[in-house]
Write a structure and sequence with these properties.
Blueprint (H helix, E strand, L loop, with lengths): L1 H20 E8 L7 E2 L3 E2 L8 E12 L6 E9 L8 E5 L10 E5 L3 E2 L1 E9 L6 E10 L2
């Protein structure tokens, strides 16, 4: 009986550790944008003790998009709030009135600091977007 309880305890602890490494969150909400810009350097949530993420995905969801507007988005990852060692890791397909959301996989380890860059175009460009992420922390 003690062995069974010990095994159950170990399995439970393993599940808690795995669960603690997985985070899903809204990582950016742009507010209304009317020009090209970026988010500035931000840190992925709940990863303050880890150096980055092992894998995951990010999803962009636009709102208030007019028929002639386009939005191009890239995501850079870096090692500090100053973007040390930054590299563009994700490039989303252009967002249009017919292509309104996209999810990109992060298949290799990346640092925990990120910056979202956007270029908006159209007759009277004005829209907003949100970026969501699901990540597995790097130990």
């Amino acid at each position: 009986m003690r062995r069974v309880l010990a095994v159950l305890l170990l399995v439970t602890l393993a599940l808690v550790v795995v669960e603690a490494r997985v985070t899903s969150a809204l990582v950016y909400s742009s507010g209304t944008i009317t020009a090209t810009g970026n988010s500035g350097w931000l840190r992925l949530p709940t990863l303050s003790r880890q150096t980055g993420i092992e894998k995951g995905h990010m999803r962009i969801v636009p709102a208030n998009l007019a028929t002639d507007e386009t939005l191009d988005v890239t995501v850079d990852f870096g090692y500090s709030s100053a973007g040390v060692g930054s590299e563009t890791i994700l490039t989303f397909t252009q967002i249009t009135s017919t292509n309104v959301a996209e999810t990109k996989q992060i298949s290799n380890a990346v640092p925990s600091w990120y910056r979202i860059n956007w270029t908006i175009a159209g007759t009277t460009p004005s829209m907003d977007f949100s970026m969501y992420a699901t990540m597995i922390a790097d130990d």
